[in-house]
Fold:
Amino acid sequence: MTERNHVLLKMILGAVIGCMLAVGSASGVVLAQGTAAEEQNLEKKATTLNGMPASPKLDEARVQALAKQFNVPESRIAELRNQKMGWGEITIGLAMAEHLAATSQTPMTTEQALTKVEQLRGEKMGWGRIAKDLGFKLGPVISKVERSETAVRTADREVIARDDGKSKADHLEKASGAERKDRLDRPERAARPERPGR
Structure:
């Protein structure tokens, strides 16, 4: 190989390596943007879940729905709620814990994974950073949160339907009781006399 060809080969290799580095750094930027968008999506879902109406019956139904969804004790979810965590934060934490437990190299329960997620969250880490530190992407977590949101909304609708059914039944019962009382208090009508000529 001539020296000119050797120089030309070095230039081509340098250009190829430069292009690969540029593409690699560009894909890193795209990945970072993707993670930021996913984290924003999670925060938006948290805000939606936190903004749902509250009542003791709805809270109880949500605890049951999330416990069933993530296979954790209801007492654990109630404990998170007692720590003044919103439904969004709880749901995302549970989704991350379930995904961590499923993908971890060392076997762990969702409960153990949840403790790890809580620890990192306590260090003021965002969801994207936590996922990166734990070695997974947010996409599967977002899917789990969406399924959980559906389960929570279904539980809410069931509580509202039961309450509506009870209040309608109570209303009907009260109304029928009032009608009976009215009938008992009213004197019987005297029979009308027949009109002649009809």
